[in-house]
Amino acid sequence: MKLGMVGLPNTGKSTLFNALTGAGAVSENYAFSTVEAAVGAVSVPDARLIRLAELYNPAKITPASLEVVDIAGLVKGSSKGEGLGNKFLASIREVDAIIHVVRCFEDELVVHPDGDINAKRDIETINLELIFSDLEILERKLERTRKNLKASKEFQKEADFVEKLITYMSEGKTARSYDFDEYELNIIKDVPLLSAKPVIYAANLNESDFPAVFEKPESNPHYAYTIEAAKSENCAVLPVCAKIEAEISELEEEDKQLFLGELGMSEPGLNRVIQQGYALLGLISFLTAGPQEVRAWTIRQGTKARAAAGKIHTDIEKGFIKAEVTAFSDVDELGSTNAAKEKGLLRLEGRDYIIKDGDVILFRFNKT
Fold first, then answer.
1. 122 CB burial (10 A radius; 0-12, 13-18, 19+)
2. CB count, 10 Å around CB of 152?
3. Is 271 helix (H, G, I), strand (E, B) or coil?
4. If residue 4 lies in a helix (H) or strand (E), which one and from where to where?
5. Closest by alpha carbon to 289, among 52, 51, 48?
6. Which of 159, 187, 293, 340 is the most buried (most CB within 10 A)?
7. Which of 160, 227, 165 minimizes the C-alpha distance to 195?
8. What's the rounded mean pLDDT across residues 63-71?
């Protein structure tokens, strides 16, 4: 699963990416310092793993992870190939969800491609380029549908819908803000609309504004607008400070906790970005625990037990018998799955059991 980080030049996007992944993407004060998309793996923060490690003292701890892509900077006209537009759009097509870094900080030493800071304009710039690309795709879809309509009137409803969506998006509205019904979703499911991808707005603030916006969002008008934009599209918005996150990422764990305490933070801001991204992709984790390893396994919401077993090994899926399932909260409270079993809190579930986030599982299977 991939998260793509996008933003206009000099938003702090690559600084955040480096703090998140340690991948060392180029981060300079000029447009297109990021040319090729950089890729890094990032662990999904999960306090449950720490607790299980305390209980089982394993030889190894393995968190869930996501792939994050630092996508080359975008400018007006990207949908027509301006700047690095073709690379930008191709990279967006390959990701499952987007972290849109919005510049909400003033700094005369960091140039803005449009000359001044304006979150409203910047958000619209990126959204419009995605919309323009989508409209070209929808026009081609409508052309094909009209050809089919000549052969059969049953395509009239589809043609009417595509025309309606084109009109809606021509007003500068993203596909993700459209309220699709079940029929419309079925029609559009195989149409690769870029503006339909789920988004987290990461509002990048300076060090002085960052703590203030938690209690008073309106103290930074750019951040306040980003919140409005997110609400209109049913997206999440999270405040971050790239400079602080970069400093935190370079500290040893003990110093990191002291620094976070001084800032009044319980965890780095980017932890919240990744946790939100994980949820945005419709992902959950089930857990396995023992003396060899404590591990979080990534699955989609709604995954059944037998398919989840296949995440560990295909042989476990093929030979699946039962899943021994305990809620993490019970393991946490009682100290082990054995203690939970003695209390009658361990359940035997079949192949069609739908895994819940935080289930601690041992799979029984026939070895082949």
1. buried
2. 8
3. helix
4. strand 2-6
5. 52
6. 340
7. 165
8. 89
Residue matched to tokens 């890094």 = 40
Asked if residues 99 and 202 have their Cβ atoms less than 8 Å apart, the reply is yes
Tokens of 249: 């990422």
Q: Please state the length of the chain.
A: 368
Pairing of strands 199-204, 60-62: unpaired
d(CA 257, CA 112): 34
**What dihedral angle (degrees, nearest 10) is formed by the CA atoms of 89, 95, 96, 101?**
-70
Q: What is the pTM of this model?
A: 0.82
CA 170 to chain centroid: 27
* pLDDT at residue 176, as a whole number: 93
Helix axes 13-21 and 242-249, enclosed angle (nearest 10): 20
Mean pLDDT of the chain: 88
**Rounded distance between C-alpha atoms, residue 55 and residue 62, angstroms:** 15
Q: Is 161 helix (H, G, I), strand (E, B) or coil?
A: helix
Q: How confident is the model at residue 298 (pLDDT cuts 50, 70, 90)?
A: very high
Among candidate residues 185, 182, 219, 187, the one with its CA nearest the CA of residue 203: 219
Residues facing 300 on adjacent strands:
283
Between the CA of residue 338 and those of 14, 292, 328, 342, what are the distances in Å?
A: 46, 17, 13, 6
Among 8-12, 128-132, 256-260, 349-353, name the most confident range. Answer: 349-353
How far apart CA 198 and CA 98 sit, in angstroms, is: 6
147 in Cβ contact with 96 (< 8 Å): no
